[in-house]
Design goal:
Strand order of the largest sheet: 1-2
Helix content: 10-25%
Order of helices and strands: EEH
Radius of gyration: 16 Å
Shape: elongated
Amino acid sequence: MLVLTIGEDVARTGEVFCDDPIAPDVVSETPLEDAIKWIESYKQ
């Protein structure tokens, strides 16, 4: 199972803060395959 949590902060002026992307820990040429391998490494 993969759970993705998202959220945004709103200032009292109404300005929304949620546009800054999160930098990846690992850069990959094959992200899908690498993600599958990573997830499978945690199977028990």
